[in-house]
Amino acid sequence: MAKCAICEKGAHFGNNVSHSNRKTPKMWKSNVKSVRVKTEGGSKKMYVCTSCLKSGKVERA
User: Fold this and answer.
1) How far apart are CA 46 and CA 3, in angstroms?
2) Which has the closest alpha carbon to 29: 44, 55, 47, 46?
3) In whole angstroms, what is the distance from residue 19 CA to residue 52 CA?
4) CA distance 36 to 44
5) What would the pLDDT profile of 4-45 be if each residue is shown by its tens digit?
6) Rounded CA gap, 6 and 16, in Å?
7) Which of 8, 35, 36, 45 has the most CB atoms at less than 10 Å from its CB?
8) DSSP-assigned states of every residue in 40-53
């Protein structure tokens, strides 16, 4: 699973808990996209989460 290059957000792990209180493993995946990003040396392809894109921490190429 990819991590955000800006905020290091990745997958989260925990348990699904049923009504009878049985636990099964669960993974929540973060919304990470592969995006071309402007850098000082041109443009570069990076994995960036959508919350970083929306907040303006990254400028698309």
Assistant:
1) 10
2) 47
3) 36
4) 5
5) 999 999 999 999 999 999 999 999 999 999 999 998 889 999
6) 29
7) 35
8) TTEEEEEEEEHHHH
Token duo for residue 32? 């990470």
Give pairs for 48-57: CB < 8 Å, separation 24+: 48/4, 48/5, 48/6, 49/4, 49/6, 49/7, 49/9, 51/7, 51/9, 52/4, 52/6, 52/7, 57/6, 57/7
Q: Which two tokens stand for residue 59?
A: 């400028």
What Å distances lie between residue 38 and 19, 27, 50, CA to CA? 48, 31, 16
Which stretches does DSSP call E strand in 1-61?
12-17, 23-28, 32-39, 42-49
